[in-house]
Design a protein that fits this description.
This protein is an alpha/beta fold. It has four domains: about 120 residues, no CATH class; about 160 residues, Glycogen Phosphorylase B (Rossmann fold), CATH 3.40.50.2000; about 160 residues, Rossmann fold (3-Layer(aba) Sandwich), CATH 3.40.50.2000; about 325 residues, Glycogen Phosphorylase B (Rossmann fold, 3-Layer(aba) Sandwich), CATH 3.40.50. About 45% of the residues lie in helices and about 15% in strands. The strands form six sheets. Strands 1, 4, 7, 8, 11, 12, 13, 14, 18 and 19 form a ten-stranded mixed beta sheet that branches. Strands 22-21-20-23-24-25 form a six-stranded parallel beta sheet, sandwiched between helices. Strand 9 and strand 10 form a beta hairpin. The protein is globular. The structure holds ligand 26W. Ligand 26W binds next to helix 7. Keywords: Carbohydrate metabolism, Glycogen metabolism, Glycosyltransferase, Phosphoprotein, Pyridoxal phosphate, Transferase. One of its GO terms (biological process) is glycogen catabolic process. Belongs to the glycogen phosphorylase family.
């Protein structure tokens, strides 16, 4: 992979560009020149200093005068100006990292759901007020520029957002970390609704400029595909193998800043873009075959073109595997070639780096590191395997068997022939160990083999990750237990001590401080500063739950957040949030195991109670049900459920008999930016997945920390939330995981619940009667049919308990003082769910990468 490094002149610090650096003798950067040694300084932290920097950027960077500038010009200039304030920290962090060579984390993730960058950068540099004043002096409202930013939607949901929270925490905790991923040209699709149905639009997030990225084409890595392998005898007579690839692409790194919270540190997120090795074939072009001339370019660019919008069922598409190998190979080459010092002793690699595998998507990194160590670095297989086993750890984020990736040996052998050979050898040696331990227990061997024989010979990536990883963790206590007992029991038995748990967390910087400034102010006023980087200190809020005046202020914060949401949704989607309504919120990807259908059945039940005259509208607790959910484009049932929610919503919203006491709002295109507005306004957080299906959930944590009460099952991290906030401050319902097992084992007959529960029957009959579909009785046959015949996630079995719990919610909400007390205790007792605590657990149990400098 050696390649020649760029040798041109370098500008060192902004202020000093005036005095040109004298030409060094060897043409390289004159590292001893006093200017080269001077630490890069950031612009003056003052309103005037900022305004000068901003206008310079607007004029010289954006090339416009303030008077002629568009909002986008101003936003881009502002972003670049804020970058200047972070640059010194970034370069200093990199310099110190290179100097200390402290052990760090390389987080390998196919997804990063970063959200908008500007607000977080201003918070990290504590520049918000200076910038707001400076812009105001220029006649600009900072809110307009913040609203101009398009969030990088480089992820689907939980897994991608978790990666973003984790890199934020590691930077804030001063832990050396590089996040590696893919710079998709198109992120998660934009969702619009046409007649209540989801329609996907491409997410051209780069169209208006991407001011937060730093491309480094001169640090491109070459990544190969296809071809064949051949064995040869090397100069000292050793039998060696080489890979002869068929085609290559260039991986161009784009660096993003990951600023720590006011600690002077900035870590790096390096996302790879694919470009053709040969961008343009002039010979073919001159032969007049213009398409052919650029074919390799378009072909190569396809690799990082678009994010796969699935978040549970892999499609096994070749391009997906190309994406996974592309970013993994580029990242390993980058780390071994550019981050490590030239003469680094590779046997010491496990003391220098831990590659954390964010689910199975980057697991091809295991055979890739083996290939590099054995084929390119010439290490012996056993030495390479010891190193590899010490360098990887694997986090599993799912419990759905269909979400565990397997790649056919046919496809792997064609795309990555050398890697398949290496996987075969890893499996052979692993099964040898199994035989040594358990003798010729063929059933066990077949069960544990990394290679599955049926239905098609394929590689089980979760098994490969478990065999190679030093540690395997789930993302919540219950999940990790189910991983040990149900998903990977043979491996838990074979590798005592390898399985552990690290319960997920969320960054309080974005999801409390930035999203809920009102609450943050009230907290700081009450317990002082410091809680943002030590969230367990929220415990100090407990006594305030008994303070009536504090409760009133807490309610005012919530009411203000509701008014803000009303303003946002009115402007964004033309829908209004009714004052005085309880906001009952369910925002997450659309998936049957998350049971949005159960939420719909509750809404219809409430609706039926009124239209049947059983309950007077005036006696209803006024509620607005807010949904946010994208469905994978190929997931038909999920799209039908979205259609049903919108259909029920428009019927309920337009039925006078409800007197406006029930409202359904489903803003399209739920993303991080909308979450930051919806979650602080919520009263009730819906976490109603079937027990044993949601690995953890992280939305549940964000709601609790923003003073919403949870109605939920004992699933994922709900269990730990309930245990910490107290049963009395949590609306628990539904079967426990063992009860689900038992019911499924006994044979579940969903229609029997329909028969035996009149309210349930009436709710389902209402859907089938066409009430919500203009009389079309078959519009939702797919959903109704599935609920009555299959109902894989037992929504009907948990219906009665859910409705009962919802009635309790109504009763509880009537006592606002008691409700507020419970909400305050949820905030006070949820400090555990900071991603900083998750990082401490990873460091103690898996990484052993203490905060460096
Ligand atoms: C290959 C298709 C695919 C893509 C993404 C399969 C699986 C995934 C992700 C693992 C799905 C995901 O986002 N899982 C969620 O991860 C969160 C972070 O740990 C958890 O909080 C959620 O419970 C889990 O559903």
């Amino acid at each position: 992979m050696g390649r020649d490094r760029y040798r041109g002149p370098v500008a060192n610090s902004v202020e000093t560009t005036e005095t040109p650096a004298p030409e060094p003798a060897d043409g390289g950067p004159n590292r001893s020149h006093p200017l080269a040694l001077a630490p890069v300084s950031s612009p003056p932290v003052s309103v005037d200093g900022f305004v000068r920097e901003f206008l310079r950027e607007l004029n010289f960077g954006q090339g416009v005068a303030l008077s002629a500038s568009t909002v986008n010009d101003q936003y881009l200039a502002l972003a670049r100006t804020v970058r200047h304030y972070l640059m010194a920290r970034w370069l200093e962090t990199m310099r110190r990292q290179k100097e200390t060579q402290a052990k760090g984390v390389a987080y390998l993730s196919a997804e990063y759901l970063l959200g908008r960058q500007l607000g977080n950068a201003l918070l990290a540099t504590d520049l918000t007020d200076i910038v707001a004043d400076g812009l105001a002096q220029c006649g600009i409202d900072i809110a307009d520029l913040r609203a101009q930013e398009v969030e990088p939607g480089l992820g689907n949901g939980g897994l991608g957002r978790l990666a973003a929270c984790f890199v934020d925490s590691l930077a804030t905790m001063s832990v050396p970390c590089i996040g590696y991923g893919i710079r998709y040209e198109f992120g998660i699709f934009r969702q619009t609704f046409v007649d209540g149905r989801q329609v996907e639009q491409p997410d051209s997030w780069l169209a208006l400029g991407a001011p937060w990225e730093f491309p480094h084409p001169d640090s491109a890595q070459e990544v190969s595909f296809g071809g064949h392998t051949e064995t040869y005898t090397d100069s000292d007579g050793a039998e060696r193998t080489r890979w002869v690839p068929a085609w290559t692409v260039q991986a161009v790194p784009y660096n993003y800043m990951v600023p720590g919270y006011q600690n002077g540190r900035v870590n790096t997120l390096r996302l790879w873009r694919s470009v053709a090795t040969e961008r343009f074939d002039l010979r073919i072009f001159n032969s007049g075959d213009y398409e052919e001339a650029v074919r390799s370019q378009t072909f190569a660019e396809n690799i990082s073109k678009v994010l796969y919008p699935e978040d549970s069922t892999p499609q096994g598409k070749e391009l997906r595997l190309q994406q996974q190998y592309f970013f993994v190979a580029a990242s390993i080459a980058d780390f071994l070639e550019d981050v490590l010092p030239e003469d680094f002793d590779l046997t010491k690699l496990p003391e220098r780096i831990i590659f954390q595998l964010n689910d199975t998507h980057p697991v091809i990194a295991v055979p890739e590191l083996m290939r590099v160590l054995v084929d390119e670095k010439g290490l012996a297989w056993d030495t390479a395997w010891e190193i590899t086993k010490g360098c990887f750890a694997y986090t599993c984020h799912t419990l759905l068997p269909e979400a565990l990736e397997v790649w056919s040996v046919e496809l792997l052998g064609r795309l990555l022939p050398r890697h398949l050979e290496i996987i075969y050898r890893i499996n052979e040696e692993f099964l040898e160990e199994v035989r040594e331990r358990f003798g010729d227990d063929e059933l066990r061997i077949r069960r544990m083999s990394i290679i599955a024989e049926h239905p098609e010979r394929s590689v089980r990536m979760a098994y490969l990750a478990t065999v190679a990883g030093s540690k395997v963790n789930g993302v919540a206590e219950l999940h990790s237990q189910l991983l040990r007992d149900k998903v990977l029991p043979d491996f838990n038995e074979f590798y005592p001590g390898k399985f552990t748990n690290v319960t997920n967390g969320i960054t309080p910087r974005r999801f409390v401080r930035l999203a809920n400034p009102g609450l943050s102010e009230l907290i700081t006023e009450s317990i002082g500063v410091g809680w943002l980087t030590d969230l367990e200190r929220l415990r100090e809020l407990e006594p305030f739950a008994a303070d009536e005046e504090f409760r009133a202020r807490f309610r005012e914060v919530k009411a203000a957040n509701k008014r803000r949401l009303h303003a946002v949704l009115t402007e964004r989607d033309g829908v209004s949030v009714s004052d005085g309504h309880m906001l009952d919120v369910m925002v997450k990807r659309l998936h049957e195991y998350k049971r949005q259908t159960l939420k719909v059945l509750h809404i219809i039940t409430q609706y039926n109670r009124v239209v049947s005259g059983e309950v007077a509208a005036a006696d209803l607790t006024p509620r607005t049900f807010i949904f946010g959910a994208k469905a994978a484009p190929g997931y038909k049932m999920a799209k039908d459920i979205i259609h049903l929610i919108n259909a029920v919503g428009s019927t309920v919203n337009n039925d006078e008999r409800l007197e406006g006491r029930l409202k359904v709002i489903f803003p399209p295109n739920y993303n991080v930016t909308l979450a930051e507005k919806v979650i602080p306004a919520a009263d009730l957080s819906e976490q109603i997945s079937l027990a044993g299906k949601e690995a953890s959930g992280t939305g549940n944590m964000k709601f609790a920390l923003n003073g919403a009460l949870t109605i939920g099952t004992d699933d994922g991290a709900n269990v730990e939330i309930r245990q910490l906030v107290g049963d009395e401050n949590f609306f628990l319902f539904g079967m426990l995981e063992p009860e689900v097992e038992a019911l499924q084992a006994a044979g579940y007959v969903p229609s029997s619940y329909y028969e035996s529960n009149p309210e349930l029957r009436r709710a389902i009959d209402a859907i089938a009667s066409g009430v919500f579909s203009g009389g079309d009785r078959h519009m939702f046959d797919s959903v109704v049919g599935n609920l009555l015949q299959e109902d894989r996630f037992l929504a009907l079995a948990d219906y009665a308990a859910y409705i009962e719990a919802q009635d309790k919610v109504d009763a509880a909400y009537a006592d606002q003082e008691e409700w507020t007390r419970a909400a305050i205790l949820n905030v006070a007792r949820s400090g555990f769910f900071s991603s900083d605590r998750s990082m401490r657990d990873y460091i103690d149990r898996i990484w052993h990468t203490p905060p460096a400098f």
